[in-house]
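Lab notebook, bench 4. The sequencing result for the construct came back, and we need a structural model before the next group meeting so we can plan mutations. Quick request posted to the team channel:

Model the 3D structure of this chain.
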Amino acid sequence: MPAQDPTDLPAASTSQLRLLWQNRVASSKPHPPRSRTLLLRDLTWPDQQAHHGGFDAETARLLSHAIRTAERPSSRTGASKPRPRALKPSRLTPGTSLLRIWHGVTHEVHVEATSRFSYRGKPYRSLSAIAREITGARWSGPRFFGLQKP
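Done. Here's the predicted structure in token form:
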């Protein structure tokens, strides 16, 4: 039987945690987390909210900002490095060509005047629309084309 008291959760087996997660959280999330740590977080957070209250709007806003601007660790050294910031497409000089190789095919985009783009002779208003045209999925156009601030 899965543990019911939050203080008993760390002693429960992973299968017990998954069963408890299915009973408590499954309606709000489609798949259980793979990590035992994330299972414990998912199971204890609602109890903590009930006992101590959730985040107020200002705290939620600050956390969201911190996540967006956080440094991410380098995969090799473990040292953190600043997250590269995408260059705004409006700063591109008209006449610039952007190249991207996707699945072995080279795609070339031309920057037109007034922040418009041309791809295969067709005008586009954003790089994201072109990235979607190429990949069939939603991408950040500047990130897809590797535009980063120096």
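Residues 29 and 88 are 34 Å apart (CA to CA).
Will bring this to the meeting.
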